[in-house]
Design brief:
NADH Oxidase, 41% helix, globular, single chain, binds flavin mononucleotide
Length: 172
């Protein structure tokens, strides 16, 4: 699948088949995340790969009972690692590490789509509860990305017009 098709085909999918994800595909997704740009190439993020049923169930509960998290065969939790980008002071610790984690998660989502898999970005979760589940101490969970073969075909969601979001030379 070419890049533009992957971008156009990606949807947030919230129902997954139980079919396992092939290891080679999972590796490709992780390699894609790992090739994302990052501030100073410090890659100030950690990825927690979760396949264990109990762990996934706990994550679903910590995410307002978004049960599809437990349904997905694999779940990636992207965490910002402020220490890793502390070279850049508070801008590194407060912003760059979050941006690094976010970009890597986006790359993972697009890679999943290109491989015929689906995912959804889950941001609504109890940060403390998720940190406890994944044993995050000095890192901050940013996004939970359940991945699997889709068991639904959501419609394309609307977007703002490009002319509404792009401003020439300065903001109005
Ligand atoms: C920061 C962020 C947080 C999100 N949190 C959730 C979430 O907790 N649960 C959920 O089902 N979808 C969540 N989404 C997915 C959005 O609802 C979805 O991307 C948006 O409706 C556009 O639909 P699309 O992804 O199919 O294009 C989140 C997306 C982003 C970027």
């Amino acid at each position: 699948m070419d890049f533009f098709t992957a971008v156009a085909n990606r949807r947030s999918v919230r129902a997954f088949k139980s079919k396992a994800i092939e290891e080679a595909k999972l590796q490709k997704i992780l390699e894609s995340a790992n090739s994302a740009p990052s501030a100073g190439n410090l890659q100030a993020y950690e990825i927690v790969l979760i396949k264990d049923k109990k762990q996934k169930k706990a994550l679903a509960e910590a995410s307002n009972n978004q049960e599809f998290i437990a349904e997905a065969p694999a779940v990636l939790v992207f965490c910002a690692n402020p220490m890793q980008s502390s070279r850049y002071g508070s801008r590194g610790a407060d912003l760059y590490c979050v941006q690094d984690a976010t970009i890597a998660a986006s790359y993972a989502q697009l890679a999943a789509t290109a491989l015929g898999l689906s995912s959804v970005w889950v941001g609504a979760f109890d940060e403390k509860a998720v940190s406890k589940i994944i044993n995050a101490r000095a890192v901050l969970p940013i996004a939970i990305i359940p991945i699997g073969y889709p068991n639904e075909e959501p419609e394309k969601t609307p977007r703002r017009k490009i002319s509404d979001i792009v401003h020439h030379e300065k903001l109005p």
